[in-house]
Amino acid sequence: MLLVCEWCQKIQDDLKLLNLPCGYLICKDHFDSITDTFDCFICKTHPVSKSYCYNMPKNRVKLAELDFLTIADSIKTKIDEILPIKNDPNHAVNETISFLINKIDLKRELTKLQYNTQIDDYFDKLIQDVKKIKLSVQDYVDMNLSDLNLEIIQTTFSQTSSLTDKLKPGYFDSKIELLRNIDTNKIDQVVNIFKVIEKIDFENKEFKFDPNKIFSINLNQILDLVKRDEAIEQTPMAKIIPKDNLTKQFGLSYIEELSNGDLVGVSDLHCGTLIIWNPFNTKLKEIKVSEKKIKFIKVSDNDEIVTVTNDFYVKIYRDESLVKMFQISSNRLKAIDTYSNYFVSADTIMNITLRDFTNGKIINTFKAPNFIHSIKVYRNDELLIGDNESICLWNLRTSECLKEFKILKRALSIDLLSENEIVFGTRDGKICCWNVNENKRLSSQTISKNPLAICKVYEKNKIFSCSEDGELRLWEKCKGGLIVSVKRRSKEVCFGKILKNKSLLTCTKTGLVTILKKI
Ligand SMILES: [Zn+2]
Ligand SMILES: [Zn+2]
Asked: What InterPro entries would the database entry show (predicted)?
């Protein structure tokens, strides 16, 4: 149904028009660019709350339907693609494989034809070349032989002379003179040409057809796709993984990855010891960091392992040796992050501190207004802070709150989706995308009854999420928001991570680490 906006007079689909509390109907777009409370566009006599409007039953239904339609739009193309396959999988497989076989058959005939032509062309050209050479050879031979009078010489050889003749003065001199004047060099050159021509032959006398050098067709890519998931490592590594429930340890990155593929974790037996291991060979290296428990580990941009222990020391390791160490204030830490040469920490009494990474000196410190649940460096010197009901963007140097998004939930894990977009997982099991620049919610969906404790972007527009009930999901960002591409559930899994080589690492509460080659 088409209706008219009572503010800008634009004719719109009913769905895209929302009611104000006073009853007027206006475009949904008008709400996007205003603050949460504003004076009524039309009456101008009463304040209006945006969230109140969004929650009015009529509007709520419209917004929900719009969400449904955008998601449906993205899913629809996928459904259209899978429908004929789902209806008759055998037929679909036969069809596509037959198509490939036909393609190969056709290529066979075409190749024979092309080869025949190309071989003929090659040998024809060779013969033409030889014919051209023949003319030059003829010229050369003719030219070199023109001065050579063989008859006179042969006569000289065959003449039989009497002794009287031989006794005549100068008799042999004239004969020798005649022979000496013969250009033997020319004779050699001409004879040589014939020898060379006779010896010319093909270097490779046998013709071998090596299709692999000529055609490239990659059938293995099909096998790679249909190969069943294969765990490359399924050794229980109980000593590596803390057994604590994820909620108790929130903020701890259980396992980090170095640029060479080595994994870094905290020993469960000696909770002050770092363990570095390569998933392809089970050799472990241990670094004793402290007598106290390691509370946080993070691999910095420079491939250094940053550890924070319960006795408030930050120790930084490179190539397994301690390179920097400094002490921080004795408040319990809630979360840490690093960027270039800076170390950011948030504690349980809402202090945010920016430190120089190289010496631990405090550059700035300020107090956030609410309890902090998560932090994430957004850009240089800008930090996203998730508190009880919002995500705020702060300037770390000026202590200025740049933006605030009321999400009315607790964000447990924030990551950067693109230059202006963030994704976060909430305590009530929602995964949400937000445009920071436009202060606009892009999508939000409930995926679990449990807290969504891990929400990491691992590739452009691809997100990995893990909720506390062990449900792992891979998401793809599309027009209408996020859609699931892979879902995997394992009751025991308490941590998951996509490694740099795209394999999936999971670990259970009992410490079983599994790496799947394919996600
Ligand atoms: Zn309007
Ligand atoms: Zn009004």
From this structure: WD40/YVTN_repeat-like_dom_sf, WD40_repeat_dom_sf, WD40_rpt, WDR55/POC1
